[in-house]
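User: I'll paste a sequence; please echo it back and then give the predicted structure.

Assistant: Echoing your sequence first, then the prediction.
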Amino acid sequence: MTDPAHLTAPVVPARRPPHGAPGPLARLKATYFPTPLQGLLTVVLGALLVVLLARLADWAVVGAVWSPADPAACSADGAGACWAVVAEKHRVMFFGAFPYEEHWRAALACLLIIAAFVVSALPRCWSPHLAWLWIATLALALWLMLGGAGLAELSTSDWGGLPLTLLLSAGTVSLGLPLALVLALGRNSTMPAVRLICIGTIELFRGLPLLAVLFMASLILPLFLGEGVTVDKFVRALVGMVLFFGAYAAEIVRGGLQALPKGQYEAAMSLGLPYWPMMITVILPQALRIVVPALVNDIIRAFKNTSFVAVIGLFDFLGATKASLQDPLWVRHTLEAYLFIMAVYFAFCWAMSRYALWIERRIDTDRPSHAP
């Protein structure tokens, strides 16, 4: 009879349980003090950072002048940052030459555009109806800025400040993205005439700096329209920025189209889908998902590029701030004014970049659920 002893499982000596995750102190030591030299560098740089932050806090907060009543207080001994210039000039900085008593209209137009951006960012609101929301928002914002139908009529020469920046950036993106899609698809077209027109448009505007495009739209375009035909300066600037943005965004979209496997096109065609339904329902959603980071980067750049319109006589947020500092009482305190508008620009751009990161993670279905 077979001895059943060999069927008995061998005795395995007990092992200590694995160590848990390292504590905060262990992670801090591993990150900042892994070696004596790196620990010394951490201490030295940390001390320098503390000294710099202390001096910055003393200049920007403790010794700062906040009241706009007396500009001479900013020049007193021991005075820090002169934030009084922002308190005194904030209306001109935000609204430019817009009539003082009509500032509520410009502020409401800004709130409408920002609210449209917020609504568009909510996933539950993603639908084709967003196009109608933007059409209504821009139409209402233009009515508030131009007037008529019960409001005092104004011209675009009265526009300036943040409303002009938001209107230009919103118009550039809302009109430039459809143009970019058309140019990207046209560049891949099998029709030679369409492909040549799209290639020529893209290469022309990608080969020119934005300043040259704005000058061309503002100064050269009227020469081709004939005598007596004029186009509003704001419209000319918007057309130039749309073409410039559309050319760059078209190459981004084309990169997404080329990144798709050929099998996606073959699978869509095997289902019998015509060209446009195939592009709208199968190809473009996948291509746009790939290029979300690059596309949002271009949108952020379009928002900042609005500052270039000052060269053709339109004063955006940056241009209106520069104009407001021509006052001899406050001309010495331009640093604080520029730091303020830098913070405003950073707030808008940071919000857009963080939202783009969230969108990228949300639509990236290939990413593991535990990935950061």
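The chain has 14 helices and no strands. Confidence is low (pLDDT under 50) at residues 368-372.
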